Amino acid sequence: MVHRDDRVEHYRMITLHKLIRMIHQLKPHILAIDNIHELTRNRRDLISFMRRLPVGTKLVQVTGGEQLESLAKLAHNHGLSFDKFDPIQEAEVCAALASMNVGAEVKVFQDRTNIKVSRARSPGRGGWSQNRYRRKVHGNVRMKVREIEDVLKELNREKHINFTSNIIKGFGGYVRGEFQIDAPRNQIPVNSAKYGDVRIKVYEVERDAIQFRLLSEQKRKYVIVGVDPGTTTGLALLDLKGDLIKLHSSRNISISGVIEMIVKYGRPLIVATDVSPIPGTVEKIRRTFNALPGEPGESLTAVDKINLAKPYGYSNDHERDALAAAAHVIRRYKNKFDQIRKKIPIPVDPDESIALVMRGDTIDSAIAKLTEHETFPEEKVDKKISHQSDERINQFSRTIKCQQETIDNLKIYQQELKSRIKQKDDIIANRNEKIQYLKSKDYKQMRRDKEIKFRENKIRQFQKTIKEKNRKVTALSEHIDKLKQVRNLEISGRTVPIKIVSSFTREAVISLQEKYGINQGDVLFFKNASGGGPAVVDLMFQYGIRAVIFRGELAHNAIDELYKKDLPFFNVTSLHVYYVDDFGVVDPDELEDFEQMFFNDLNKRKKKEKEQQLDNLVEEYKSERRRGLV
What is the average pLDDT across 440-465? Predict the structure, then answer.
């Protein structure tokens, strides 16, 4: 039976293949059935069938979960009647009961999804183009893996959905990539498909056992609501872990509109605001849900609100204020929520426990309240078993087994808690002994001696630092005095100051430049003329020095370069130099005479070179005449 466009269509007989095709065409919210064993033979077939359902379609067993009730009894209790021998009427009753939230949703998958990206083709045995083909396939796999990774990163930023990945690299790219996502299938915008060389498989993670969740007990999860009232109302909903569920702002929205939006996304545990006292509009919303007030001790400052809302992101000040109010509550109670989660046993819903504790219960009483409904009186079970069919007996046996597993798990958890208590008692005893030791006189004396030794070491370090700095100050003072002497000589004009370079190399010239500076018109004296060449001459020419004095023998290529640059140079045996450390002086008149001699010699050298060039041209001309070329 199918309800579509206010019409009811009946199909007395239908194959499983046609049923699945019809489900994909109609995409119903609920697929209702009185017993899942009429649909599939075993658990494996059921999982295979549910993998083929479209996203958003629930499979509901209207006769209940592990404890089944007859369809006739359920129909009678809800004012429905039908012919037990007419499958069409039976299907109508199943659909009607499911629409009344009667029955249990069949859960075979966890709220986790896996995505596998792999090769759609095998590289083959080999051949001349095998490596090129393999590189192409692996490159396409890598490209598709990165596309999916970008989608998942965007989901993580927007909805805080976490994921992990496992990449297998191959020649030229990836052999395959797998993603494990902490979210149900309907929240993942990636579908199974085949793209040429690449195959994408998206599938839910199976549960260890089939679970049934009663529709009547499916509760919306608890949320922390932040409200910023006004002409434009801001609304923010966070879950009890601090993850953002909904962020919204709207102009002229009514209180009923705000309440309707909150109901859509969860159950408010705390309704918060960013100002104190709580505004009247927010108080009305809080009373509607009988929620706890989330009022700060004093109104939050703009800086506080920005810091609280920044990790989530927002579009305007109203969303920011609502976010800040909810985030402030999460930050205030975070330690308390974590403490409750650590203390409750695994089967107990942590959010329900937090809600009970926040409303005044102790953690132990909250656990007791939440586990009461799981007790299963043996007499009642025996009574029911005696009046049911063999199939019902099997159902109860599975229920008892499941409950026994829960009891065993709780016992194991109890032993773990006892072990933790013993460990903590041992830690407390050790710490008490340590406290007594710390209070003793010996410890005080030892601590005082240790402090004295520490301070003495500090003093020695400071003395060493002061000594080093004094040495640097003395060296810098001497350096300044030398610079002053050179400057005075330059200003007086009685002598020409020169700067001393250790060797005729680029490194020595650059070191002098960094240490004292080389100005245009400076005279340099090289204590050792060996080791350098045209590169040193070119560097000095760039600095614009006046002349070069050297001791020893310059290289021939360096002399040629000095002549080319018109840079005067003299041997110290000809021009007398008076120097101490890194500075010296020469007689200005004597320097000018030697410079004049250099330029005269330079002119003769250039004239001789020109004459030589002319002679070469004449000889070349004569040679060509003799060969009859001219």
Answer: 86
